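ok here's the first one, seq then C-alpha coordinates
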Amino acid sequence: MQSFRYTNLIVAAGLFVFGAACAKKQVAVAPPPPAPVANNTPAPRETTPPPPRETPAQPVARSAPSSYPNAATRARIDELIARIQDAYFDYDQHTLRNDAIATLSADSKELAEILRNYPGYKLKIEGYCDERGSAEYNIALGDARAKAAKDYLVNAGVASAQLDTVSFGKEMPVCTDHEESCWQKNRRVHIIAEKQNS
Protein backbone atom coordinates (compact mmCIF):
# COMPACT_ATOMS: atom_id res chain seq x y z
CA MET A 1 0.00 0.00 0.00
CA GLN A 2 2.90 2.16 0.81
CA SER A 3 4.28 1.60 -2.68
CA PHE A 4 0.99 2.61 -4.25
CA ARG A 5 1.11 5.99 -2.53
CA TYR A 6 4.64 6.43 -3.47
CA THR A 7 3.81 5.75 -7.11
CA ASN A 8 0.90 8.17 -7.03
CA LEU A 9 3.11 10.77 -5.54
CA ILE A 10 5.70 10.39 -8.26
CA VAL A 11 3.03 10.58 -10.96
CA ALA A 12 1.51 13.69 -9.34
CA ALA A 13 4.89 15.34 -9.09
CA GLY A 14 5.63 14.54 -12.72
CA LEU A 15 2.34 16.05 -13.77
CA PHE A 16 3.05 19.15 -11.73
CA VAL A 17 6.44 19.61 -13.32
CA PHE A 18 5.07 18.94 -16.72
CA GLY A 19 2.19 21.39 -16.16
CA ALA A 20 4.53 24.05 -14.85
CA ALA A 21 6.80 23.60 -17.81
CA CYS A 22 3.86 23.93 -20.16
CA ALA A 23 2.56 27.01 -18.40
CA LYS A 24 5.87 28.81 -18.83
CA LYS A 25 6.18 27.94 -22.45
CA GLN A 26 5.10 30.92 -24.58
CA VAL A 27 3.57 30.48 -27.93
CA ALA A 28 5.41 32.41 -30.58
CA VAL A 29 3.10 35.01 -32.09
CA ALA A 30 3.90 36.67 -35.39
CA PRO A 31 4.61 40.39 -34.94
CA PRO A 32 1.95 42.74 -36.32
CA PRO A 33 2.66 44.25 -39.73
CA PRO A 34 4.26 47.66 -39.64
CA ALA A 35 1.86 50.58 -39.80
CA PRO A 36 1.70 52.13 -43.30
CA VAL A 37 3.83 55.23 -43.68
CA ALA A 38 1.99 58.26 -45.00
CA ASN A 39 3.16 58.97 -48.52
CA ASN A 40 2.97 62.60 -49.59
CA THR A 41 3.35 61.88 -53.33
CA PRO A 42 -0.02 61.91 -55.12
CA ALA A 43 -1.25 58.71 -56.57
CA PRO A 44 -0.78 58.56 -60.32
CA ARG A 45 -3.83 59.69 -62.25
CA GLU A 46 -5.39 57.40 -64.71
CA THR A 47 -4.99 59.16 -68.02
CA THR A 48 -5.69 58.00 -71.48
CA PRO A 49 -2.79 58.45 -73.82
CA PRO A 50 -3.26 61.21 -76.40
CA PRO A 51 -4.42 59.97 -79.79
CA PRO A 52 -1.60 59.55 -82.26
CA ARG A 53 -1.07 62.54 -84.47
CA GLU A 54 -2.05 62.00 -88.02
CA THR A 55 0.62 62.86 -90.47
CA PRO A 56 -0.84 65.21 -93.06
CA ALA A 57 -1.13 63.64 -96.46
CA GLN A 58 1.64 64.72 -98.73
CA PRO A 59 0.36 66.31 -101.94
CA VAL A 60 0.89 64.24 -105.00
CA ALA A 61 3.51 65.87 -107.12
CA ARG A 62 2.02 66.87 -110.42
CA SER A 63 3.92 68.21 -113.29
CA ALA A 64 3.01 71.80 -113.95
CA PRO A 65 1.07 72.23 -117.15
CA SER A 66 3.02 73.73 -119.98
CA SER A 67 1.97 77.26 -120.80
CA TYR A 68 2.41 76.87 -124.54
CA PRO A 69 1.23 73.97 -126.73
CA ASN A 70 3.43 72.19 -129.23
CA ALA A 71 2.99 72.67 -132.98
CA ALA A 72 0.50 69.79 -133.41
CA THR A 73 -1.70 71.06 -130.58
CA ARG A 74 -1.54 74.63 -131.90
CA ALA A 75 -2.68 73.34 -135.29
CA ARG A 76 -5.64 71.58 -133.63
CA ILE A 77 -6.58 74.78 -131.74
CA ASP A 78 -6.45 76.76 -134.98
CA GLU A 79 -8.64 74.15 -136.67
CA LEU A 80 -11.23 74.34 -133.87
CA ILE A 81 -11.25 78.15 -133.95
CA ALA A 82 -11.75 78.12 -137.72
CA ARG A 83 -14.67 75.70 -137.36
CA ILE A 84 -16.32 77.85 -134.69
CA GLN A 85 -16.71 80.56 -137.37
CA ASP A 86 -18.10 83.99 -136.71
CA ALA A 87 -21.20 84.41 -134.56
CA TYR A 88 -23.69 86.99 -135.88
CA PHE A 89 -26.04 89.44 -134.13
CA ASP A 90 -29.26 91.26 -134.90
CA TYR A 91 -29.20 95.00 -135.52
CA ASP A 92 -28.39 97.04 -132.39
CA GLN A 93 -28.30 93.84 -130.24
CA HIS A 94 -25.59 92.03 -128.29
CA THR A 95 -27.64 88.98 -127.22
CA LEU A 96 -26.48 85.73 -128.80
CA ARG A 97 -28.96 84.41 -131.33
CA ASN A 98 -29.70 80.69 -131.62
CA ASP A 99 -27.53 80.39 -134.71
CA ALA A 100 -24.69 82.20 -132.88
CA ILE A 101 -25.00 79.76 -129.96
CA ALA A 102 -24.89 76.82 -132.37
CA THR A 103 -21.77 78.30 -133.94
CA LEU A 104 -20.01 78.80 -130.60
CA SER A 105 -21.00 75.43 -129.19
CA ALA A 106 -19.79 73.40 -132.18
CA ASP A 107 -16.26 72.76 -130.88
CA SER A 108 -16.02 74.87 -127.74
CA LYS A 109 -15.98 71.86 -125.35
CA GLU A 110 -12.96 70.31 -127.04
CA LEU A 111 -11.30 73.70 -127.21
CA ALA A 112 -11.88 74.16 -123.46
CA GLU A 113 -10.31 70.76 -122.71
CA ILE A 114 -7.21 71.56 -124.73
CA LEU A 115 -6.77 75.07 -123.31
CA ARG A 116 -7.06 73.76 -119.73
CA ASN A 117 -3.62 72.17 -120.22
CA TYR A 118 -2.06 75.43 -121.45
CA PRO A 119 -3.03 78.22 -119.02
CA GLY A 120 -0.71 80.71 -120.67
CA TYR A 121 -2.31 80.29 -124.10
CA LYS A 122 -4.91 82.98 -124.85
CA LEU A 123 -7.63 83.64 -127.36
CA LYS A 124 -9.01 86.99 -128.38
CA ILE A 125 -12.69 87.63 -129.10
CA GLU A 126 -13.20 90.55 -131.44
CA GLY A 127 -16.52 92.41 -131.54
CA TYR A 128 -17.73 94.19 -134.71
CA CYS A 129 -20.71 96.31 -135.81
CA ASP A 130 -22.17 97.55 -139.08
CA GLU A 131 -21.56 101.11 -140.33
CA ARG A 132 -24.69 102.69 -138.83
CA GLY A 133 -24.41 104.69 -135.60
CA SER A 134 -21.60 106.73 -134.13
CA ALA A 135 -18.09 105.36 -133.67
CA GLU A 136 -18.39 105.60 -129.88
CA TYR A 137 -21.73 103.80 -129.80
CA ASN A 138 -20.43 101.00 -132.03
CA ILE A 139 -17.28 100.54 -129.94
CA ALA A 140 -19.49 99.97 -126.88
CA LEU A 141 -21.83 97.66 -128.82
CA GLY A 142 -18.92 95.64 -130.24
CA ASP A 143 -17.51 95.30 -126.73
CA ALA A 144 -20.86 94.01 -125.42
CA ARG A 145 -20.98 91.46 -128.25
CA ALA A 146 -17.46 90.23 -127.51
CA LYS A 147 -18.30 89.89 -123.82
CA ALA A 148 -21.48 87.92 -124.60
CA ALA A 149 -19.39 85.44 -126.59
CA LYS A 150 -16.78 85.28 -123.83
CA ASP A 151 -19.46 84.52 -121.23
CA TYR A 152 -20.74 81.68 -123.38
CA LEU A 153 -17.25 80.18 -123.77
CA VAL A 154 -16.52 80.51 -120.05
CA ASN A 155 -19.75 78.59 -119.35
CA ALA A 156 -18.51 75.96 -121.81
CA GLY A 157 -15.37 75.51 -119.70
CA VAL A 158 -12.77 77.89 -121.13
CA ALA A 159 -10.94 79.75 -118.37
CA SER A 160 -11.90 83.43 -118.27
CA ALA A 161 -8.23 84.40 -117.92
CA GLN A 162 -7.54 82.81 -121.31
CA LEU A 163 -10.10 84.94 -123.14
CA ASP A 164 -9.46 88.59 -123.95
CA THR A 165 -12.02 90.83 -125.63
CA VAL A 166 -11.61 93.78 -127.95
CA SER A 167 -14.06 95.91 -129.90
CA PHE A 168 -13.40 97.33 -133.35
CA GLY A 169 -16.86 98.88 -133.63
CA LYS A 170 -17.61 99.67 -137.26
CA GLU A 171 -13.95 99.62 -138.29
CA MET A 172 -12.57 96.75 -140.38
CA PRO A 173 -15.84 95.62 -142.05
CA VAL A 174 -15.85 92.39 -144.06
CA CYS A 175 -18.40 93.89 -146.47
CA THR A 176 -18.68 97.51 -147.62
CA ASP A 177 -22.01 97.56 -149.47
CA HIS A 178 -24.69 99.78 -147.96
CA GLU A 179 -27.46 97.21 -147.57
CA GLU A 180 -28.79 94.80 -144.95
CA SER A 181 -27.23 91.64 -146.39
CA CYS A 182 -23.82 93.30 -146.08
CA TRP A 183 -24.49 94.90 -142.71
CA GLN A 184 -25.47 91.50 -141.31
CA LYS A 185 -22.01 90.14 -142.14
CA ASN A 186 -20.39 92.96 -140.17
CA ARG A 187 -22.46 92.47 -136.97
CA ARG A 188 -20.33 89.65 -135.54
CA VAL A 189 -17.74 88.34 -133.16
CA HIS A 190 -14.58 86.68 -134.40
CA ILE A 191 -12.18 84.51 -132.36
CA ILE A 192 -8.45 84.36 -132.98
CA ALA A 193 -5.43 83.01 -131.13
CA GLU A 194 -3.45 85.85 -129.61
CA LYS A 195 0.16 86.22 -130.61
CA GLN A 196 2.00 84.05 -128.11
CA ASN A 197 5.44 84.50 -126.60
CA SER A 198 6.85 81.01 -127.16
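and now the second one, same deal
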Amino acid sequence: MTIRIAVDVMGGDNGPGVIIEGAVAGARSLGAKVLLVGVESEIQSGLKGTDSSGVEVEVVPATDVITMHDHPAQAVRRKPQSSINVALRLIAEGRADAMVSPGNSGAVMAGALMVLSRIKGIERPAIASYIPTVRGKTLLLDLGAVVDPKPSHLVQFAEMGQVYAQRILNLPQPTIGLLSNGEEPTKGNALVQQVYPLLQARDDLNFAGNVEGKDVAMGTVDIVVTDGFTGNVALKTAEGVANFLVEILREEIMKTLPRKLAGLILRPAFRDMRRRLDYAEIGGAPLLGVNGSVIICHGRSSARAIETALTAASRSFEHDLAGEIGRRNANRPQAAEA
Protein backbone atom coordinates (compact mmCIF):
# COMPACT_ATOMS: atom_id res chain seq x y z
CA MET A 1 0.00 0.00 0.00
CA THR A 2 1.29 3.43 -0.93
CA ILE A 3 1.39 5.76 2.05
CA ARG A 4 -0.16 9.20 1.53
CA ILE A 5 1.40 12.13 3.36
CA ALA A 6 -0.13 15.60 3.49
CA VAL A 7 2.39 18.44 3.78
CA ASP A 8 1.52 21.96 4.88
CA VAL A 9 3.75 23.99 2.57
CA MET A 10 2.78 27.45 3.82
CA GLY A 11 4.07 27.63 7.38
CA GLY A 12 7.86 27.50 7.11
CA ASP A 13 10.26 30.41 7.47
CA ASN A 14 12.05 29.55 4.22
CA GLY A 15 9.05 29.66 1.90
CA PRO A 16 7.01 27.01 0.07
CA GLY A 17 9.77 26.17 -2.40
CA VAL A 18 12.05 24.66 0.23
CA ILE A 19 9.22 22.64 1.77
CA ILE A 20 8.08 21.36 -1.62
CA GLU A 21 11.64 20.32 -2.49
CA GLY A 22 11.94 18.35 0.74
CA ALA A 23 8.47 16.85 0.46
CA VAL A 24 9.08 15.58 -3.05
CA ALA A 25 12.48 14.17 -2.07
CA GLY A 26 10.94 12.42 0.93
CA ALA A 27 8.09 10.99 -1.12
CA ARG A 28 10.54 9.72 -3.72
CA SER A 29 12.73 7.91 -1.16
CA LEU A 30 9.66 6.37 0.53
CA GLY A 31 7.73 5.55 -2.62
CA ALA A 32 4.92 7.61 -1.13
CA LYS A 33 2.25 9.92 -2.48
CA VAL A 34 2.58 13.51 -1.29
CA LEU A 35 -0.34 15.91 -1.00
CA LEU A 36 0.94 19.49 -1.08
CA VAL A 37 -1.46 21.73 0.82
CA GLY A 38 -1.44 25.51 0.47
CA VAL A 39 -2.05 28.44 -1.86
CA GLU A 40 -2.29 26.78 -5.27
CA SER A 41 -0.38 29.43 -7.23
CA GLU A 42 2.56 29.25 -4.81
CA ILE A 43 2.62 25.46 -4.91
CA GLN A 44 2.63 25.43 -8.71
CA SER A 45 5.45 27.98 -8.71
CA GLY A 46 7.45 25.84 -6.31
CA LEU A 47 6.88 22.70 -8.35
CA LYS A 48 8.37 24.38 -11.43
CA GLY A 49 11.72 24.51 -9.68
CA THR A 50 11.53 20.94 -8.38
CA ASP A 51 12.07 17.67 -10.19
CA SER A 52 8.95 15.71 -9.28
CA SER A 53 9.29 13.09 -12.00
CA GLY A 54 8.33 9.63 -10.81
CA VAL A 55 6.61 10.97 -7.69
CA GLU A 56 2.85 10.95 -7.20
CA VAL A 57 1.99 14.55 -6.30
CA GLU A 58 -1.43 16.02 -5.60
CA VAL A 59 -2.03 19.73 -5.05
CA VAL A 60 -4.68 20.47 -2.44
CA PRO A 61 -5.70 24.14 -2.39
CA ALA A 62 -5.97 26.03 0.89
CA THR A 63 -7.01 29.67 0.71
CA ASP A 64 -5.67 30.86 4.05
CA VAL A 65 -2.45 30.74 6.08
CA ILE A 66 -1.83 30.68 9.83
CA THR A 67 1.32 32.65 10.55
CA MET A 68 3.79 32.28 13.42
CA HIS A 69 2.36 35.47 14.91
CA ASP A 70 -1.25 34.27 15.01
CA HIS A 71 -2.79 33.10 18.27
CA PRO A 72 -2.93 29.31 17.74
CA ALA A 73 -6.41 28.39 18.99
CA GLN A 74 -8.05 31.55 17.68
CA ALA A 75 -6.44 31.20 14.26
CA VAL A 76 -7.56 27.58 13.92
CA ARG A 77 -11.17 28.61 14.53
CA ARG A 78 -11.07 31.80 12.45
CA LYS A 79 -9.22 30.28 9.49
CA PRO A 80 -10.94 26.97 8.72
CA GLN A 81 -9.48 26.98 5.19
CA SER A 82 -5.89 27.41 6.37
CA SER A 83 -3.29 24.95 5.10
CA ILE A 84 -2.97 23.44 8.60
CA ASN A 85 -6.69 22.76 8.92
CA VAL A 86 -7.06 21.48 5.38
CA ALA A 87 -4.10 19.09 5.80
CA LEU A 88 -5.52 17.73 9.05
CA ARG A 89 -8.93 17.22 7.46
CA LEU A 90 -7.29 15.08 4.78
CA ILE A 91 -6.43 12.60 7.54
CA ALA A 92 -9.91 12.80 9.06
CA GLU A 93 -11.48 12.22 5.63
CA GLY A 94 -9.24 9.25 4.89
CA ARG A 95 -7.45 10.96 1.99
CA ALA A 96 -4.10 11.06 3.81
CA ASP A 97 -2.40 8.73 6.28
CA ALA A 98 -0.18 11.32 7.96
CA MET A 99 0.51 15.04 8.04
CA VAL A 100 3.72 17.11 8.22
CA SER A 101 3.86 20.81 9.07
CA PRO A 102 6.65 23.31 9.77
CA GLY A 103 4.01 25.90 10.64
CA ASN A 104 2.78 27.36 13.91
CA SER A 105 3.19 24.39 16.28
CA GLY A 106 0.51 25.64 18.66
CA ALA A 107 -1.93 25.88 15.77
CA VAL A 108 -1.03 22.39 14.57
CA MET A 109 -1.76 21.05 18.05
CA ALA A 110 -4.99 23.02 18.42
CA GLY A 111 -6.11 21.98 14.95
CA ALA A 112 -5.28 18.33 15.60
CA LEU A 113 -7.35 18.39 18.79
CA MET A 114 -10.26 19.99 16.95
CA VAL A 115 -10.14 17.93 13.74
CA LEU A 116 -8.77 14.57 14.91
CA SER A 117 -9.60 14.73 18.65
CA ARG A 118 -7.67 13.21 21.55
CA ILE A 119 -7.15 9.49 21.97
CA LYS A 120 -9.60 8.22 24.58
CA GLY A 121 -7.95 8.24 27.98
CA ILE A 122 -5.33 10.83 27.07
CA GLU A 123 -5.93 14.14 28.82
CA ARG A 124 -3.31 16.20 26.96
CA PRO A 125 -1.15 15.51 23.89
CA ALA A 126 2.64 15.73 23.96
CA ILE A 127 5.27 16.64 21.39
CA ALA A 128 8.09 14.10 21.43
CA SER A 129 11.45 13.96 19.74
CA TYR A 130 14.79 12.35 20.35
CA ILE A 131 18.13 14.06 20.71
CA PRO A 132 21.53 12.52 19.93
CA THR A 133 23.43 11.28 22.96
CA VAL A 134 26.71 9.55 23.74
CA ARG A 135 24.87 6.22 23.82
CA GLY A 136 22.56 6.79 20.85
CA LYS A 137 19.23 8.57 21.26
CA THR A 138 17.16 9.89 24.15
CA LEU A 139 13.46 10.60 23.67
CA LEU A 140 12.36 13.88 25.27
CA LEU A 141 8.76 14.89 25.92
CA ASP A 142 6.88 17.17 26.21
CA LEU A 143 8.51 19.76 23.95
CA GLY A 144 5.88 22.47 24.19
CA ALA A 145 2.36 21.11 23.85
CA VAL A 146 1.52 21.53 27.56
CA VAL A 147 3.60 24.12 29.39
CA ASP A 148 1.75 23.86 32.71
CA PRO A 149 0.67 20.23 33.07
CA LYS A 150 -0.89 18.31 35.93
CA PRO A 151 0.94 15.32 37.46
CA SER A 152 -1.35 12.88 35.62
CA HIS A 153 -0.34 14.46 32.31
CA LEU A 154 3.34 13.65 32.88
CA VAL A 155 2.47 10.06 33.74
CA GLN A 156 0.62 9.81 30.43
CA PHE A 157 3.61 11.38 28.66
CA ALA A 158 5.71 8.55 30.08
CA GLU A 159 3.17 6.00 28.83
CA MET A 160 3.12 7.46 25.33
CA GLY A 161 6.91 7.81 25.29
CA GLN A 162 7.19 4.15 26.16
CA VAL A 163 5.05 3.21 23.15
CA TYR A 164 7.16 5.40 20.88
CA ALA A 165 10.45 3.99 22.17
CA GLN A 166 9.24 0.42 21.82
CA ARG A 167 7.72 0.80 18.36
CA ILE A 168 10.07 3.29 16.69
CA LEU A 169 13.37 2.92 18.55
CA ASN A 170 13.01 -0.86 19.07
CA LEU A 171 13.62 -0.71 22.83
CA PRO A 172 11.67 -3.52 24.57
CA GLN A 173 12.00 -2.07 28.10
CA PRO A 174 12.98 1.60 27.76
CA THR A 175 14.13 3.32 30.94
CA ILE A 176 12.25 6.47 31.92
CA GLY A 177 13.65 9.44 33.82
CA LEU A 178 11.92 12.48 35.31
CA LEU A 179 13.81 15.72 34.60
CA SER A 180 14.72 17.47 37.83
CA ASN A 181 17.44 19.57 39.46
CA GLY A 182 18.78 16.59 41.40
CA GLU A 183 18.66 12.80 41.42
CA GLU A 184 17.21 12.48 44.92
CA PRO A 185 13.43 11.85 45.18
CA THR A 186 13.11 14.96 47.37
CA LYS A 187 14.50 17.28 44.66
CA GLY A 188 12.48 19.20 42.10
CA ASN A 189 9.58 21.63 42.09
CA ALA A 190 6.09 20.78 43.33
CA LEU A 191 5.14 19.14 40.04
CA VAL A 192 8.19 16.87 39.96
CA GLN A 193 7.71 15.83 43.58
CA GLN A 194 4.08 14.90 42.87
CA VAL A 195 4.93 12.96 39.70
CA TYR A 196 7.81 10.96 41.19
CA PRO A 197 5.71 8.62 43.40
CA LEU A 198 3.13 8.19 40.63
CA LEU A 199 5.78 6.89 38.22
CA GLN A 200 7.48 4.88 40.94
CA ALA A 201 4.22 3.06 41.66
CA ARG A 202 3.78 1.89 38.05
CA ASP A 203 5.03 -1.66 37.55
CA ASP A 204 4.52 -1.40 33.79
CA LEU A 205 6.87 1.59 33.43
CA ASN A 206 10.61 1.11 33.81
CA PHE A 207 11.08 4.23 35.95
CA ALA A 208 14.71 5.01 36.76
CA GLY A 209 14.09 8.04 38.98
CA ASN A 210 15.07 11.67 38.59
CA VAL A 211 17.64 12.73 36.00
CA GLU A 212 19.49 16.02 35.72
CA GLY A 213 20.11 18.07 32.59
CA LYS A 214 23.61 16.65 32.19
CA ASP A 215 22.20 13.12 32.09
CA VAL A 216 20.09 13.80 29.01
CA ALA A 217 23.01 14.18 26.57
CA MET A 218 24.86 11.31 28.22
CA GLY A 219 21.97 8.95 27.46
CA THR A 220 21.55 7.84 31.06
CA VAL A 221 17.94 6.88 30.31
CA ASP A 222 16.02 6.18 27.12
CA ILE A 223 13.09 8.56 27.82
CA VAL A 224 13.06 11.87 29.69
CA VAL A 225 9.70 13.23 30.83
CA THR A 226 9.10 16.89 31.70
CA ASP A 227 6.65 19.74 31.24
CA GLY A 228 6.38 21.43 27.85
CA PHE A 229 8.07 24.67 28.91
CA THR A 230 11.15 22.96 30.34
CA GLY A 231 11.32 20.44 27.52
CA ASN A 232 11.20 23.12 24.84
CA VAL A 233 13.95 25.13 26.53
CA ALA A 234 16.07 21.99 27.01
CA LEU A 235 15.73 20.96 23.35
CA LYS A 236 16.55 24.40 21.94
CA THR A 237 19.47 24.75 24.34
CA ALA A 238 20.83 21.41 23.13
CA GLU A 239 20.45 22.50 19.50
CA GLY A 240 22.19 25.79 20.26
CA VAL A 241 25.08 24.04 22.02
CA ALA A 242 25.46 21.66 19.06
CA ASN A 243 25.72 24.59 16.63
CA PHE A 244 28.10 26.35 19.01
CA LEU A 245 30.45 23.36 19.16
CA VAL A 246 30.52 22.99 15.39
CA GLU A 247 31.29 26.69 14.85
CA ILE A 248 33.96 26.84 17.57
CA LEU A 249 35.62 23.72 16.19
CA ARG A 250 35.69 25.24 12.71
CA GLU A 251 37.18 28.50 13.99
CA GLU A 252 39.91 26.73 15.96
CA ILE A 253 40.88 24.46 13.06
CA MET A 254 41.28 27.44 10.71
CA LYS A 255 43.67 29.34 13.00
CA THR A 256 46.94 27.66 11.95
CA LEU A 257 48.27 25.73 8.99
CA PRO A 258 49.02 22.54 10.97
CA ARG A 259 45.47 22.56 12.29
CA LYS A 260 44.11 23.03 8.77
CA LEU A 261 46.12 20.03 7.58
CA ALA A 262 44.89 17.96 10.51
CA GLY A 263 41.37 19.12 9.73
CA LEU A 264 41.65 17.76 6.20
CA ILE A 265 42.61 14.36 7.56
CA LEU A 266 39.81 14.43 10.14
CA ARG A 267 37.17 15.85 7.76
CA PRO A 268 35.19 12.58 7.53
CA ALA A 269 34.99 12.39 11.34
CA PHE A 270 33.89 16.03 11.57
CA ARG A 271 31.28 15.44 8.86
CA ASP A 272 29.89 12.45 10.76
CA MET A 273 29.84 14.43 14.01
CA ARG A 274 27.94 17.26 12.37
CA ARG A 275 25.44 14.82 10.91
CA ARG A 276 24.82 13.30 14.36
CA LEU A 277 24.19 16.74 15.84
CA ASP A 278 22.10 18.14 12.98
CA TYR A 279 18.38 18.57 13.79
CA ALA A 280 17.63 18.13 10.08
CA GLU A 281 18.54 14.45 10.39
CA ILE A 282 15.66 14.08 12.89
CA GLY A 283 13.27 16.20 10.85
CA GLY A 284 10.14 16.41 12.92
CA ALA A 285 8.48 15.55 16.20
CA PRO A 286 5.31 13.45 16.46
CA LEU A 287 2.33 14.89 18.28
CA LEU A 288 1.40 11.97 20.53
CA GLY A 289 -2.09 11.60 21.97
CA VAL A 290 -4.23 12.55 18.96
CA ASN A 291 -6.07 10.21 16.60
CA GLY A 292 -3.68 10.41 13.68
CA SER A 293 -0.05 10.67 12.61
CA VAL A 294 0.94 14.34 12.90
CA ILE A 295 4.54 15.52 12.63
CA ILE A 296 5.58 19.01 13.76
CA CYS A 297 8.76 20.48 12.27
CA HIS A 298 10.94 23.50 12.96
CA GLY A 299 9.72 26.67 11.29
CA ARG A 300 13.23 27.07 9.88
CA SER A 301 13.25 23.55 8.43
CA SER A 302 15.49 22.96 5.45
CA ALA A 303 14.55 20.72 2.54
CA ARG A 304 16.54 17.93 4.19
CA ALA A 305 14.61 18.38 7.45
CA ILE A 306 11.28 18.11 5.62
CA GLU A 307 12.51 15.03 3.78
CA THR A 308 13.37 13.27 7.05
CA ALA A 309 10.10 14.48 8.59
CA LEU A 310 8.23 12.52 5.92
CA THR A 311 10.14 9.44 7.04
CA ALA A 312 9.05 10.12 10.63
CA ALA A 313 5.45 10.48 9.43
CA SER A 314 5.65 7.23 7.51
CA ARG A 315 7.06 5.32 10.49
CA SER A 316 4.47 6.82 12.84
CA PHE A 317 1.66 5.61 10.59
CA GLU A 318 3.14 2.23 9.70
CA HIS A 319 3.84 1.40 13.36
CA ASP A 320 0.34 2.60 14.30
CA LEU A 321 1.49 4.76 17.23
CA ALA A 322 -1.92 6.33 17.78
CA GLY A 323 -3.69 2.98 17.67
CA GLU A 324 -1.25 1.35 20.09
CA ILE A 325 -1.51 4.24 22.55
CA GLY A 326 -5.30 3.92 22.41
CA ARG A 327 -5.24 0.16 22.93
CA ARG A 328 -2.94 0.38 25.95
CA ASN A 329 -5.05 3.10 27.53
CA ALA A 330 -8.20 1.05 27.01
CA ASN A 331 -6.59 -1.80 28.95
CA ARG A 332 -5.62 0.38 31.93
CA PRO A 333 -8.21 0.81 34.70
CA GLN A 334 -7.41 4.50 35.08
CA ALA A 335 -8.10 5.13 31.35
CA ALA A 336 -11.83 4.64 31.95
CA GLU A 337 -11.74 7.38 34.60
CA ALA A 338 -9.81 9.93 32.51
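notes on #2: Residues 133-279 form a domain with the Isopropylmalate Dehydrogenase fold (CATH 3.40.718.10). The mean pLDDT is 88.
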